[in-house]
Amino acid sequence: MRLAGKVAVITGAASGLGRASAQLFAEHGASVVIADRDASGGEETVAQIRDTGGQAEFIETDVAIADDADAMVTKAVTCFGKLDVLFNNAGIAIRKPVADLSEDEWDRCIDTNLKGVFLGSKSAIPEMIRGGGGSIINTASIYGVVGGRTRAAYSASKGGIVNLTRSMALDYASQNIRVNCICPGFVETPLLKKILGTEEEFQALVDMHPMGRLGRPIETAYAAVYLASDEAAFTTGIALPVDGGYTAG
């Protein structure tokens, strides 16, 4: 029960690594607010957590809208009395180089991935300060650390998350708020399966990882549990790769 007594908001938890993280947070004792645009998937995550004896609530949320970010924090405080952890996990992927990107595609990617982290954190930080501190975890990417072909907007957003994480860590360390990010490699999620075209593309992704496979959502979830827990009390400002060695070479 590494998160016993903690209250967490997890965005993008209707599926994939967000759902795996929500389930693992609850398994380790946290009360969890699931924030996602996908109401059906979000309610399913809540039901799965409750079926195993955990506490969870859902709120329909577009992380790129300030009022929605405020509402998910309010939901946590109303339902569970406080907010200890914010896991800014929601994100989208657009695979195009700069010259092929529309302005709308650029804006959607930056708004969801990067602005969403800003708005979620902006809403959560005052509540965490009132509570004496907390942990903010952001999902970046290997493409926040290294470049990637045909991922201009995505790489820009994830690189922004890495340095936004560092800046927030410095700004709020004295108020006992830790801010870290996770940089997953390619993880087998519904989002990845949706954008993959062929079996050859899948194998090419596998071959990029020295460990010879893609990641599993639970592996990223364990990293998030560590960063949310008191075990990471002296850890802030890091970008933690969970990538099977992708960025090591």
Detailed description of the structure:
The protein is of the alpha/beta class and about 250 residues long. The protein has one domain: Rossmann fold (3-Layer(aba) Sandwich). About 45% of the residues lie in helices and about 15% in strands. The protein has a seven-stranded parallel sheet with strand order 3-2-1-4-5-6-7, with helices on both faces. Helix 1 (about 15-25) packs across helix 8. The mean pLDDT is about 95.
**What's the tally of helices?**
8
Terminal residue distance: 36 Å
Question: What is the fourth-level CATH superfamily?
Answer: NAD(P)-binding Rossmann-like Domain
- Main beta sheet, described? 7 strands, parallel
Arrangement of strands in the largest sheet = 3-2-1-4-5-6-7
- Helix vs. strand class: alpha/beta
* CATH architect. name: 3-Layer(aba) Sandwich
Reading the helices and strands in chain order gives: EHEHEHEHEHEHHHE
- The overall strand count is 7
As a percent range, the share of strand residues is 15-25%
User: Compute the gyration radius: what is it?
Assistant: 17 Å
| Overall geometry | globular
Specify the helix fraction band: 40-55%
Question: CATH top level?
Answer: Alpha Beta
Give the tally of structural domains.
1
Low-pLDDT sequence parts:
none
The average pLDDT value, as a whole number, equals 95
Question: What is the CATH topology classification name?
Answer: Rossmann fold
